[in-house]
Amino acid sequence: STLFPYTTLFRSINYANNSSSSDLDAYDASTELLYRHRFETRGRTVSARLNLSKTSNYGDNQLYSENIYYNVISSSDTVDQKAHLDKNSNGVTGNLVYTEPIGGSGMIQIMGSFSGSKSESDMKTYSNSGGMRSYSIVDTSLSNLYEKNYNTYGAGMGYSMRSEDIMFTSGINYNRSILENESIFPFKSSVSKGFI
């Protein structure tokens, strides 16, 4: 019998080299103010509450990805990008409540409220141009610049009565919200909607 040599050839199918890094910072701050006052008349009160908040996110990301595919004809794909994020949000909420006694066991409550938020976000992603590590080409698919405002207004009135045998409450509330969103980059567009 004749023995034929059997040889197994090993070769690379592809090669990958990936690395990424992030340097991001964030902080939140808020404060609240509260005022309450009781009048001489029992049950007659007024109170006001105000809350302020601020959030900030900013920093940089870097991504490098190299892929080489060994087919009949070798091909490669390289991604070399840097990104910068700058996002800020400000918020305010407040309400005002007034109570007035009615008769010996009833009370009316009148309320008003407001909340608003404003956000600004600037995200820019730059690709390496010409292999010189000069990140000057903006990747519009991974970049955006927009502003968003969302405000809510509310008002209401309630009545409550309490005695030894029964307790009765009723009320009515009205709320309206307005959303405004403006995209500046990469394309300009705006949205404005109201909700009840």
Secondary-structure map with pairings?
Blueprint: E1 14-38, E2 45-69, E3 75-102, E4 106-129, E5 134-138, E6 144-162, E7 167-185, E8 189-195
Antiparallel strand pairs: 1-2, 2-3, 3-4, 4-5, 4-6, 6-7, 7-8
Question: How would you describe this protein?
Answer:
The protein is mostly beta strands and 196 residues long. It has no helices and 8 strands.
Helix content: under 10%
User: How would you characterize the largest beta sheet?
Assistant: 8 strands, antiparallel
Q: Give the topology string: H per helix, E per strand.
A: EEEEEEEE
In round numbers, the mean pLDDT is: 89
User: What is the count of β-strands?
Assistant: 8
Q: Whole-number radius of gyration? A: 31 Å
Q: Please give the alpha-carbon distance between the first and last residues.
A: 92 Å
- What is the global morphology? rod-shaped
Strand % is over 45%
Decide which structural class fits the backbone: mainly beta
Number of helices: 0
Spans of 5+ residues with little confidence (pLDDT < 50)?
Answer: none
Quick summary:
With 196 residues, this protein is an all-beta fold.
List keywords for this structure.
mainly beta, 8 strands, 196 residues
